[in-house]
From TrEMBL:
Matches recorded under Gene3D superfamilies: TolB, C-terminal domain
Coiled coil: none
Listed InterPro entries: 6-blade_b-propeller_TolB-like, Hetero-Diels-Alderase-like
Signal sequence segment: 1-17
The protein's name: SMP-30/Gluconolactonase/LRE-like region domain-containing protein
Lineage: Eukaryota, Fungi, Dikarya, Ascomycota, Pezizomycotina
Matching PANTHER family: NHL REPEAT-CONTAINING PROTEIN-RELATED, SMP-30_GLUCONOLACTONASE_LRE-LIKE REGION DOMAIN-CONTAINING PROTEIN
Ribonucleoprotein listed as a keyword: no
Keyword annotations: Signal
Length: 315
């Protein structure tokens, strides 16, 4: 099912004027930020793929600090992926961990877990929430009612975890969430929920879709295409369902309207402004962006830099 004038707009892009600045940049190349979330106090928590760590960035002081290193809990954990607050204002977060090789972009099935990271007190506490050994490669996670919904990219599935019981199961399995045929194992990636719809980015299929879901996280309607033929990674949604999308190897942030119109907000294929943007989170007119510095694909084949958190002031 198509939305509005998708068949026209998905082939066209517009460019918006937005200012970009660096909030915090790591000192070493090879830093790969995967996901961001904003705490109640305005600090940004970020997960890293290159090491199994969660960091905090203070937007006022521009200082980044290590919050937790999961290798101290389990030496087999190599990477952190999705992060989501389990209750609004609680400062308790669900963090996805697993064993992953960012150089070959391959994961070890059976290694993926959900942890509870509590940063509400003076001391950070990390406790295992649930292991999902059947998962192939978990990535983004969101809170939805009493559930966590988690994307499994190679498996083309959404897992649900009941936060009251810790029981887990597959909630949705659909062809559109699978990797494209003869492509790397990157299917469903970023996910969000707004107004009863699950929005998702299918990376190698280059499709941005949504589907109505029940309170149990199961699909109840058609899998609608919003836009296609574009680069997709993690994203955030405005209140009206407009998406701000990180494009990773395209080195840009795009805005995707529900009618399928695609606009470049910042950066570009040959731009060194935002090399390798992997995720973004919206707060008012401020868009916070995490990058991998061009590790996935160097800008113009040559330029990489340290991963960073950037701020885009939207017009």
């Amino acid at each position: 099912m198509l939305l509005g004038s998708l068949t026209i707009f998905s082939l066209l892009t517009w460019t918006l004027a937005a200012s970009v600045s660096t909030l915090y940049q790591f000192s070493d190349k090879g830093t790969f930020i995967d996901n961001l979330v904003i705490r109640q106090n305005g600090h940004i928590l970020l997960t890293r793929i290159d090491v199994p760590q969660v960091w905090s960035v203070d937007p006022d002081t521009h200082v980044g600090t290590l919050v937790h290193d999961f290798s101290y809990d389990n030496s087999t954990i190599t990477s952190c992926f999705g992060i989501a607050e389990v209750h609004p204002g609680s400062d308790i977060f669900a963090v996805i961990t697993g064993s992953f090789d960012s150089s070959s972009f391959s994961s070890i099935p059976g290694s993926f877990e959900v942890w509870k990271l509590d940063v509400s007190g003076d001391e950070t506490e990390a406790l295992p929430l649930v292991s999902i050994p059947e998962a192939k490669a978990l990535s983004a996670v969101i809170k939805f009612g009493d559930l966590l919904l988690i994307a499994d990219s190679p498996d083309g599935a959404i897992w649900r975890v009941n936060l009251r019981t810790n029981e887990y199961a597959k909630a949705i399995v659909h062809e559109s969430m699978l990797p494209a045929p003869n492509a790397p194992p990157m299917g469903i990636n970023g996910i969000r929920v707004r107004n009863g719809f699950l929005y998702y980015a299918s990376t190698t299929r280059q499709e941005f879709r949504r589907v109505a879901i029940s309170s149990n996280g199961e699909a109840t309607g058609p899998f609608e295409i919003i836009a296609s033929g574009i680069a997709l990674d993690n994203f955030d949604l405005d209140v009206d369902g407009t998406a701000y999308m990180a494009t990773n190897a395209e080195n840009s942030i795009t805005k995707i309207s529900l009618d399928g119109k695609v606009e470049t907000v910042a950066g570009g294929k040959s731009s060194r402004e935002l090399p390798g943007p992997t995720s973004c989170v919206l707060k008012g007119k401020m868009l916070y962006v995490g990058t991998n510095g061009g590790l996935t694909e160097p800008v113009d084949g040559v330029f990489t830099e340290q991963g960073k958190v950037a701020i885009i002031k939207l017009p």
